[in-house]
Amino acid sequence: MSERFINPAIAAVPPSAIRKFFDTASTLKDAISLGVGEPDFVTPFPMRNAAIDSLLDGETQYTTNYGIMPLREEISRYLMERFHVGYDPRNEILVTVGASEAIDIALRAILSPGDEVLIPEPCYISYQACTRFTGGVPVQVHTLAENAFELDAGDLEACVTKRSKVLILSYPSNPTGAVLPREKLEAVARVAIKHNLFVICDEIYSELTYDGFTQASMASLPGMWERTMTISGFSKAFAMTGFRLGYLCAPKPYVSAAAKIHQYTIMCASRQSQVAAWYALKRGRETGYEDISRMRESYNQRRRLMLKAFGDMGLECFEPKGAFYMFPSIMKTGLSSDAFCDRLLQEKAVICVPGSAFGDSGEGHIRCCYATGTDKLQEAFERIAAFLGTI
Amino acid sequence: MNGVKQQILEILSNDCRTPLEQIATMTGLGLVEVAQCIDELEKDQIILRYRPIINWDKAERQRVEAMIEVKVTPQRDFGFDAVAKRIYRFSEVKSLYLMSGNYDLLILVEAPTLKELAQFVSERLSPLETVTGTATSFVLKRYKQDGVVFEDSGEDTRLAVSP
What we know:
Largest sheet of chain B: 4 strands, antiparallel
Shape of chain B: extended
CATH architecture of the largest domain in chain B: 2-Layer Sandwich
CATH topology of the largest domain in chain A: Aspartate Aminotransferase, domain 2
Strand order of the largest sheet of chain A: 2-8-7-6-5-3-4
Oligomer: heterodimer
Radius of gyration of chain A: 21 Å
Largest sheet of chain A: 7 strands, mixed
Radius of gyration of chain B: 21 Å
Number of helices of chain B: 5
Number of strands of chain B: 6
Shape of chain A: globular
Distance between the termini of chain A: 45 Å
Strand content of chain A: 5-15%
CATH topology of the largest domain in chain B: Alpha-Beta Plaits
Number of domains of chain A: 2
CATH architecture of the largest domain in chain A: 3-Layer(aba) Sandwich
Structural class of chain B: alpha+beta
Helix content of chain B: 25-40%
CATH superfamily of the largest domain in chain B: Lrp/AsnC effector binding domain/regulation of amino acid metabolism (RAM) domain
Number of helices of chain A: 14
Order of helices and strands of chain B: HHHEHEEHEEE
Number of strands of chain A: 12
Order of helices and strands of chain A: HHHEHHEHEHEHEHEEEHHHEHEEEH
Strand content of chain B: 15-25%
């Protein structure tokens, strides 16, 4: 009976492939998870306290659809200072429920049924699904481990058709940890301009880059601001995942369109989360972003640890310069990424996410998150090494 | 002090048993370089000792702890240092701080029994001629020490798998 009622466009989208691992993992007691997608730091206390103060002050009402003005002003300053992109807090910034909502409403604001969306893969799991929810057509652009999963402008251009409308770009990347060097970003920008593409740029991991690499923002490149939506949030850099707070920035007409959906469906992000986020940026500005630096350094130490461990195990892995993931190849085991993760969980109680969950280009790899205590990481490495010995 | 040494201190202060090789990997330094840095930190008396944080309540060892606020008369030419030195030489004194505020020195003392601790205060500390007053407060329970919560389950509250 449900077939008659459920929207076929929704029914056609498969549930997230990571779900089944979650179900098995929750039944195992001594499992070590490298499958998380969030920081292992608790939100720094001053931000939590700002939210508490807001509650104690009785700030329990709706905010404006766009988000409280002090937060938008801080976002505007922050993006200019850190990423050299300028947005007017009055009408070019929309505060959303996480970057996830921003991705959804960005696509809904831009796409018409049949429009093609160029999606470099492996990529975050929601890009394809959200595209399909709108009736858009996802087009895979493969990126390769041997190119450090950097998007090649030539490969992108080869996928462009008359129906291509949007490119979704996300560097540093979840799941690979890859970054996109400036010259490659510029080459991608030239393709976008040449073929009149709109770029939705998910920059949620922008603050988490290592060993001196800085990820340039697409909207900061000449000729790109007017055709780019910059999406980011507080989850990763500020360890605020549970606050669910993100933002979307673009020229006024695009923000107005996205705001229309936000206005009718969400109304506004949680006021307490907005206050905590405002305080995160204000405090960051005043302290030289010391919380971010501290957490980044800690991730970097563990990144080096994991890279060496995989090297010692003989698992091929390029050195990722961003986010908090590694994406080693497990091809030499002869197992599919799904089978590898399944067996690793059943036999050694270590949770990793199969690369295939992030698109076809992810097959033959597994995503491992190093945002976990070093003692647990070391134990996980021992278990993975032992597992490899049994294959 | 350079950033590398700060990083090493950070790692050791979190777990002083972290193997040299692991520290080298985490900091991106060579093994020799890490060993040299630690050696310097020890020589410069920045690292003084490597000690575990112990929950003595679970170790079933009888001990009584107290914080003693002490008022003293500073000595000419030596200020508080000479008095402090006189006090920290007592083996019962585990920590000693010079404080701002209503009293001068804060002492953390430890003794096997209440009686011995009382004797320390009445027979050894108070009679010192520079000591003009003491206020002793007994430690009833330790919740957190040096950043470590004693009864923390350490449970990771994150979802085991998330996108």
